[in-house]
Amino acid sequence: MLILVWLCVTASTGAAQTVLFSDDLSTSAGWRYSHFGGTNKPDSSDTSDADFGFNYSQFGIPEAPNSAPGDVGTSGLRLAVNVPGLWRGDQVAAVYEDAAFAGPYTVQVDVWANWVAPSGSGSTEHVGVLAGFQVDDAQNTFSPGQNGAGVIYSTDGDASCGGECDFALVKDGAHLDLASGQYGESDIHSENQPGYNNTNANDNVDLENLFPSFSIESATSNMNATGTQPAGALGFQWVTVTLEVDPTAPGSGAGSAVGTVRVTLESHQSGNSLVLGTINNSVINDPNDGFNAEEQSVNLEGGIGLMMTDLYASAASDSSLAFGLFDNVRVYQGLVDPLAAQAQSPAVVVPEPTSATILLSAVALVVVSLRRTRSMLMLVLLAFATITASPAQAQLNLFANFDHGALQSWSGDLNNISLVGRENHPFQDGWRWMYFQATGLDNAQPVFSIDQEFAGGNYALNSHAMVYSYDNENWQFFENNGRSGNLYTFSNNSAFTGDEVFVAYAQPYSYGRSAEHTATVLASPWAEPTVSGDANGVIGQTPLAFDDLDRLVPRKDIFAYRITNPATDSPTAKRKVVLTTGMHSGEVLGTHTYEGLINWLISDDVRAARLRDEVEFFAYPTLNAAGRFAGTSRATVENPDQDPNGLWNPSLWTTHEDIRANGEAMLADVASTPGTEVDVFIDFHSTIPSSAGNDFGFIEISEGDANAPWWQNLLALQPNVQQVESTGMNWTSANFADLLLNADVDVTFELEFGNNRPLSYYQELGESFGIAFYSDWIQVANPEAADFDEDGDVDEDDLSTWQDNYGLNGEATHFLGDANADTAVDGSDFLIWQQQLGSTPPAAQNVPEPSAIAFAAFTVLTLTLSGSRSRPAK
Ligand SMILES: [Zn+2]
């Protein structure tokens, strides 16, 4: 899972640090895996490995030191090279290159690497962390074919690495010379370095003192690794690698290139750290200073590389141990010196819960004065939970660092939980979208409270009810919701019956759900990507941008698809309908309604089937993908201060990439098929209670749009739905559709929050839109009894309806194949169909058995019809 980014607090110093990026490597999202080959490779098959979400507890490896609440436990990235160990010089890297990190920044990664103990004779496997990595520039050469700047290290201290060594600063694929002055330690061994001890790192007393030997067996379990980890090296332990990157720092060398990277390795076995050195772009390669590294200056702005390289073939006695692990990648804004934190922190020893409480209080006092005060309390409490969490007794904790989550901070106990909402509405003060998870609530009956300053007006909370769920799928409304004083509170009359509870402003609809639903739709024979999309329906991506919590939001795919019966595509224009949702990221009820409509359109309902014959639906479920993912209430992440529903003008799109991706796709998609008019455009939203009093559509009443029969059908099916004059002149999606998509009728449809309605209400309302279209465009007034789809003829479509539902008894309707209204679908209905099939005389005089029916039907069909509705192969 890609965890987003948050502000955190260094407990020891009280300094607030902005996290630009954080990832627990439980999925490969955002990462690119590259294999850089090697020499003497036997064939072209890539037998190296990169496993994201690798559960390292199976090897008895403890949780990585910088794991945070919400991380997937004992899960990280496993890299392995030389599998099965046939050639040398094999190298792999996982590269996060979406974010081009710039300015001073600090990369921190937890790394674990083994050597083959006790029988191995040493290891040439190295793990590494690199900043400024640009995979397109990466060299496919030996030793090591990576770029950027950072560190690689090996694990056993044997120095048996043939021109490489156990610790190496790396710059643009070159190992830096010890003689270059960039190392902090003068003697860490590297071969061919005149004037230095060329034996091994274990002889360096500094390193031996920093990293004492220990029993491997005692540090791991289940690993079948025994023996002693040599002093002076970093095998079989978590090492936090920190790169303090300053791309513009002037150097101390003779060259003019700027930029430095300070490299620190912290051993969690010993608790000690080594500043390996500071890579300096201004140091010019000296071919005579020892091993000629041919080092070049390197651009320090770019991606992050996590790498593993093996300089020779591994002859591992147990190759399953030959891997490196990476967990908890974090990038901080600015230079974050890990030693400064250590030096000032007597509390690196994990305290007992009671002392943790004291520590927490102290930290909280420090923190209150900091600039991001709003965020602090929650973050301190998150740190508290890290320290004290134990499996036996879950601590109360609230967090929202997941897809669609939104919570600024919280405080309180199991009786009273005080919430602070995120104020990220583009033009109104107060909170609005809220969605978080709480743990430790089993048997608790808390009263939640929040300031009633609500974006849109606190009156909107008068009739509002919050929702909760134990499984994040099935939602219930809180029983007590109301305003009191300055607060809005909600609670239940009985205690929670589960430890984990999700709480939200309304039934959430995450970005991930839209992505999954799109995949489901595209798997149907009745949907396909639009001309703007790839095979997965992806029409573009959101731009990288920071959200209101200073989190760098990854690029999110934007989706579209076309629903129709492709067998009836022809040069004759079909009706066109454009359906959209998700523009206002917190308006989830609109998206549930949209989903109900889409599900019906691809269903087996005969009315949907007939619609698909004559109508094509262009559908766009993720108008604001990044905003929904990041938990904003309304705006995109790219433009937090603007209402995205005013940006639907191509002249505005240079700085609104997500709206542009959707808008340009709509223009191209509707133009890609015959016909120049869009019959209907609907954008599904939700709204706080309004003067209209219920669900409603903004529609151009005065221009006659509301007279459209399908709209009147909808009002008849859903008497609670209102119509409101649409007068807006700005660039809303509806006006875009009206002016640029040539939409005959354009509607902005609003589902009202706070009406205590279950999700089934929205699903069924979505279906009603489909039925309203059908009733207008397909259905005839007085169909024949055997005209089951009521489209004005009795044909093979009706026979297939009868066949599909043959045997129904007691619940059949006309649409299901019941011609004689006896609530069954049986032979008598078939006889009516036969009799009504055009002028064709009955082919059988008796009621056929089901097995004979297929034959009879076949006979009839060969006599009669053309233009059957076939299922496309897919
Ligand atoms: Zn809206």
Automatic annotation (TrEMBL):
Protein name per its UniProtKB record: Zinc carboxypeptidase
Domain of life: Bacteria
InterPro entries per UniProt: Cytosolic_carboxypeptidase, EF_Hand_1_Ca_BS, Peptidase_M14
Cofactors that this protein relies on: Zn(2+)
One Gene Ontology biological process: proteolysis
Keywords (A to Z) from UniProt: Carboxypeptidase, Hydrolase, Protease, Signal
Organism: Adhaeretor mobilis
PANTHER family assigned: CYTOSOLIC CARBOXYPEPTIDASE, CYTOSOLIC CARBOXYPEPTIDASE 1
Annotated ranges, domain Peptidase M14: 557-648
Leader sequence residues: 1-15
GO molecular function, one term: metallocarboxypeptidase activity
UniProt keyword Protease present: yes
